[in-house]
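Example 3.2
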Amino acid sequence: MVRFVTVLLLASVLVSQTSSPKLEPYEVAEAYEVYAAVISSQFPYTDSKTSRLMIRAEIRASQATSVQMCLAPDESSEEIIGSAIADYVQQNRQGRLLQRKFNLEKPYTLFVEDEKTPPIQVSPADPQEFHPVYPEFGGLIELSAVGFNADKTIAVVYYQQLCGTLCGQGEFHVLQKKAGKWQPFPWKGSSCTWFS
């Protein structure tokens, strides 16, 4: 009987460990510079209603893979951004955990959804329900891991902001590092975006 209980306990420990694997910290310093450039361009700092940015800490592999890679550069741009797109696909095959390494003008919270924190359900629930708990909440920013070319001068990242039922936007961004700063890169080809 004792042996059976021991085997049962061991099996339950193994199942619990495999069902919720611990995410590795995302430590790519250059990626946080890319995030800051994208967030600054997408989230207006003059918006007085939101005093703090809410960023989901978890980069979910399932989310990144469910977002169809829709960047289709033409032949001339393929030579420049093709390797960054390929790296994006590779980097987003596993989940990661963002760290407090964002250099942003606005204060931010890295939101970790666990049993200790009330969940933010931005769809289909209304985020207004969470304002008593998160009074500064103005939308939940979700980010992918960043894909880079070999010399880290071109970056590809997916950004989305969810702000409630039928409220949000998401798109891929291609950036180039020029004079030490990440800026949108004017490539040629087709892309996709969503908003509601």
